[in-house]
Amino acid sequence: MEPLDLKIEELEKKIEKLQHSIDILIKIFLWTLIINVVLFVLPLLGLVLVLPQFIANYSTNLNF
User: Fold this and answer.
1) Phi, psi dihedral angles at 39 (to 5 degrees)
2) What Å distances lie between residue 4 and 16, 17, 34, 51, CA to CA?
3) Max alpha carbon distance in the chain (Å)?
4) What is the pLDDT of residues 8-50, one digit of tens each?
5) Where are the membrane-spanning stretches (predicted)?
6) What is the Rg, in whole angstroms, of the alpha carbon atoms belonging to the chain?
7) CB neighbour class for 7 (10 Å; exposed up to 12, middle 13-18, buried from 19)
8) Cα–Cα distance between 32 and 44 in angstroms, integer?
9) What gap in Å lies between CA 49 and CA 57, rounded to an integer?
10) Can you tell me whether residue 1 is helix, strand or coil?
11) pTM of the model
C-alpha cells in the first residue's frame, strides 16, 4: 500500500498547484474585465451622454 499512498500524495500536490494556478487565472480574468469596462464601456457611455449636447451646441452655432 505504500506506493499507492505515495502516488496519492503526489496527485494531491499536483492538484494544489493546479488550484493555485487557476486562482491566479481567475484574478487575471477579473482584472482584464474591470480594465475593459473602464477603458471601453465608460467612455462609450460618456460619448452617448455628451454627443447630443455637442451636436445641439454645434448646430446652434451654425444656425441650423
Assistant:
1) -90, -15
2) 18, 20, 45, 68
3) 91
4) 999 999 999 999 999 999 999 999 999 999 999 999 999 999 9
5) 28-55
6) 27
7) exposed
8) 18
9) 14
10) coil
11) 0.65
Question: Position 9: which residue type?
Answer: E
> 62 pLDDT band (50/70/90 cuts)?
confident
**H or E stretch covering 50:** helix 42-61
Could you give phi then psi for residue 15, rounded to 5 degrees?
-65, -40
Q: What is the pLDDT of residue 63?
A: 75
C-alpha cell at 3: 506506493
Q: Cα dihedral sign for 39, 45, 46, 47?
A: positive
